[in-house]
Amino acid sequence: MSEESNLLDGERPLGQYTVGVLERSLEGHWMPSVMPLSAIVTNYRLVLSPHKKKYQPATLPSHFIGQVNMATRDRYNCIELIVKSGHRLCLLMSTGKLDDLYHDLSAMKAPPPKFHFDEKIAQKDIERLIAYLENQHRVASTRQD
Question: Exposure check for the chain: N or C terminus, fewer CB within 10 A?
Fold first, then answer.
């Protein structure tokens, strides 16, 4: 999505970030995911993809995100996205730009009616992203054993 040609008419980039996702361990503690993600925020959507691997990006349209909250999970400051599917996605950054990401996510708005994002695709994208993160966690756990 780095090319302007991938943007919809009237869509503009608000920010690009490298984020981690907080995951809850089996013991109930929060820890960052193994693989960082590239997060591109536009005025209409959030696009997440692994930072260094070829992978179909997960696109979350603004209307699919129910809430954007600053939160603390254990010792981690993060942004909690509550999506309409019921999933909660906690994003964190090590660069100190968490406020910038929060501001950009809060500035997203629904696109004009002529642009319709399919919510079924957004649901599948978030499920695919969760499966990818779970797989990365399994691979990392296997390497530590």
Answer: C
Q: What is the pLDDT of residues 37-64, one digit of tens each?
A: 999 999 989 999 887 667 778 888 888 8
Q: Which fold has domain 4-136?
A: PH-domain like (2.30.29)
Instruction: Specify whether the backbone of 57 is left (phi greater than 0), alpha (psi in -120 to 50) or beta.
Output: beta
In contact, 11 and 42? CB cutoff 8 Å: yes
Q: Is the whole-model pTM more than 0.90?
A: no
Closest CA to 37 of 58, 65, 23: 58
95-102 long-range contacts, Cβ below 8 Å, gap at least 24?
Answer: 95/17, 95/18, 97/17, 98/70, 100/15, 100/17, 101/15, 101/17, 101/19, 101/39, 101/41, 102/68, 102/70
Per-residue tokens: 27: 């013991």
- What is the 3-state composition of the chain as percent helix, strand, coil, each rounded to the nearest 5? 30, 35, 35
**Whole-number Å distance between alpha carbons of 103 and 126:** 22
User: What ranges make up the beta strands (E) of the chain?
Assistant: 13-24, 30-32, 37-42, 45-50, 58-61, 65-73, 76-83, 88-92
